[in-house]
Structure formats: C-alpha cells, structure tokens
Amino acid sequence: MFDRHTRSRHDLRQPILEAGEELMTKRAVVAVMLTVAVGVVSLGAQHTLAAKFDVTKPLTLTGTVTQIDWANPYVHILMKVPGQPLPALWAVEVEGPIVLTDNGWSQASLPIGETIRVEGYAARDGSRQISGRSVVMTSTNKPVYVGTNGTPKARRVATGPTPRWPSGQPRLGPPPGETGYWGYPTRGGLLEDGVNVQMDRYGLLNNVADASKVAPMQPWALSLYRERQRTFLQRDPMYLWCKPPGGPRQFQQPYGFQFVEQPDFKRVFVLMGSANRNRRIIYTDGRKQVGQVNGNDDNPVFYGQAVARWEGDTFVVDTRSFNEEFWFDNGGLPHTEQLHLIERFTRTDMGTMRYEVTIDDPGAYTRAWKSTWNLNWVPGEETPYFLCMDNRP
Known about the structure:
The chain has helices at about 20-40, 50, 95-100, 210-215, 220-230, 235-240, and strands at about 55-70, 75-80, 90-95, 115-125, 130, 135, 140-145, 180-185, 255-260, 265-270, 280-285, 305-310, 315-320, 340-350, 350-360, 370-380. By secondary structure, the protein is of the alpha+beta class. The strands form 2 sheets. Strands 8-16-15-14-13-12-11-10-9 form a 9-stranded mixed beta sheet, with no helix packed on it.
C-alpha cells in the first residue's frame, strides 16, 4: 500500500513531543505569513487531496517563486502571480519533506526567483492555494517536486528467519546491534476480512455506496461513516487538532512505528513515527486493565489500557478503556467507549509482521469483526522524523 517512491495524493485511486519554544515560534511565524499571503486558510495537517482541493476545478498558474516553506506535513511553494491591478501571492502545496527527500528533492532544488508553471486543483475554501499536481520550471521545462529527481536510494529489503530471544520467543523489534522499524502497511483503512471494497491509503472509499459493506455498523454509525466519507475525511481530529491515532490506526500510518521490548520490566513500548511521535505502553505482567493511581486510573484514554501475553509465536494484546476523542481508523469508522480490541502480532519472518485485530464495540457495531493486514520491516533505519505540530495550511 505504501511505497515511498510511488505514493502521491494526486493519484486519486490511491488517493514524546520534544520540540522547543523556538521551533514553535518559527512555525507560527510561517503560518502567519502563509495566511497573510493567500488569505483565510484551514490549519489542517495531513489530509486527503479532495478534503482541501476541489478535483472538479483544475487550475493552471504561472508565477515567480518567492519562498519555499520546507516543513511537515506538506511543503508549500509561495509564488507571485501577475495580475491587475497588483500581482497576487499563491501557495502551491506539494508532497511533504520526508517523501520529497526520499525521492531525491531538496529545498535547493527550486531556486527563489525561478518562474514556474503549476497545474493542479483550486482550494475548496476559495483561498489562493493550488495543489501542485505538476510543477515545471519554465526556464528548463523540467519538473520539480513531482516524481523523482535522479535515481532515489532503493529501500533495503529485510530477509531471513524471524529473530528470536535466547528463550526462543520471537523478537518484535530488531536483532541485537541492529535497528529498523515497521512500516508500509498493506491496508490503509479498516475493512472486515473477506469484504471486497476498494479504498485509498487514507481509508477513503472509491465508492461511498460501498460504506455498508466495510463493517457491521449500527445505523447511527453507518450514517456518520457515510458523512465522513462524503466530506473526504475533512473533520479528522488527528489532522485538525493532532489527536493521537489510537487503536488500529497507529498501525495504518505512513511513517511507521517501533517496538521496544523490556522483558525485565514486563512491558513493551510502541513508539510512533507519525502524529506527535506518541508512545503506547503494553504490559505483560498480568495486571488488571486500569490506569495508575492518582493518574489515569480507570479513565478512558487515547491508546486504552493494554495487557498482553504470548500464545506460541503470537503476541496477543487486549485493550479497553478508550475515549471517543479520536478516530480509530484512517477512514473514519466510528467507535464508542465500549470499544474492546484483541490485537494479534505474528512475525512470520524477518521482514513481515501479520497484524490481526478483532473489534468488539456493542455501542457502534452489531457484532464483533476482524481486519487483517501486513506490516513490512525497514532494516537499518529509524522512523522518519515527523511532528504533527509542524502544521501547515
């Protein structure tokens, strides 16, 4: 589903917070500059293309580059477009810095003062923003920030058997002395096993009419899911307010995650590469599913209260006590505080993790149901550095 050298929001078919005050100030200044330049804008984070841009309104502009805003989640090119009585400032949205860097581009790839021709779609809110489906430097007629620049570094492929602890138990993370992370999920949204429905990497359905097939939803949940899909996932709290991707969604994110196993402390950390690099703790000491006294004791939380055990080579995680302040799925499937998850992680070899989740939420679904996909091991790398707080219009 996710391949760093092919993913693009313009393919409509696949359509521990540690930042300092100085960074936040810089981000705020740039956000203000963008707002002043292009008018009133929505400060959303990652989003589907159609959530922000009207794909029925193609637009072509030619102008002079005045600034490159090289920041997550998407890079923006500010350009001055001739007009009467005065020129207008426009923002061109292209892929984010992680994807662009992987594809061989850098901030220096497009000089300030260069004239560019941009083809894309107009912003839904009427602001002076355009999606950069095609960006071409008119002096050379060469594309920039679209596709690849040269031959990108090939992603290493993990091979070999499942790594194990001296006890024989499978390792969820890397072998001793190595590093890596799990990423590139084979599915972008929750879908009941055995159902044939097409959706993109954001969980957006190709056909909203298929909504009732996705999962056994109660009428109110189906109605809400349809509305979220019809509006292209615009109200996603992770994108609007950087809410954590709790539940199965943490394993649907493009920038992956790491397991950090601590057998002596009987716990496993899940360290996220997306969102705000959140962490989740899974306990293996047989404790009850409650929080810490004088802390989150019995209070619903974004990642719930998780306890786990091993069944042969499968790591089985039981999680309850979720709140309702987030979407537990990229595509916007609803849930309630009654949500109960059984997650099964099976590392079939060095490079593959099979993830199976059973969803039991009598507040939103008519019965329990399962969804399964694979995650791929990226050897020799840390998770890409992404912070939702680098928010851009």
